[in-house]
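#help-structures
NK: newbie question, is this the right format to request a structure? protein is DNA-binding transcriptional regulator, MarR family
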Amino acid sequence: MSEHETRPPSLLSLPSYLAGHVARIGHRELDGALAERGLRLPHFAVLTALSDFGPLTQHVLADRLRFNRSHLVGYLDKLEQRELVRRERDPEDRRRHRVTLTTAGAELAGEMTAVARSAQRELLSPLTDEERDTLVELLGRVLATDDSGRNSAADRAAD
């Protein structure tokens, strides 16, 4: 090993180590842009989920984002204070709250999604388009397998 190698080769052979560090690199620009707006990555996740799925009940939103439900309440409090989301009684079940994006929230979600896409293009610039597509497909497959396993475990626990 040369003196210029800073990372242990044993760690560099672990996909989870690589993925974790690459994720941190990818978050840097987005984290900075969010911080300029007084937000963090979980706030962006909430705005994005609501933008993608439309209004959701709080428990469904927490489950889809894999957030602890009590943590979600704190994120929603901040977003609601900023008038980016609105919580209202679910018309189908008055015991639940449904979360919706406000116009300002939808605009910010779109703006931050564009920032995120730009950061991802920069992050993956060493790769060809085909390599990027393959990487996204492979990572998506690993994530889908984990999601499937979690859903199966939750179904078994409910029985």
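mod (FA): yep, format's fine, and the tokens are attached above. Residues 44 and 112 are 7 Å apart (CA to CA).
NK: thank you!
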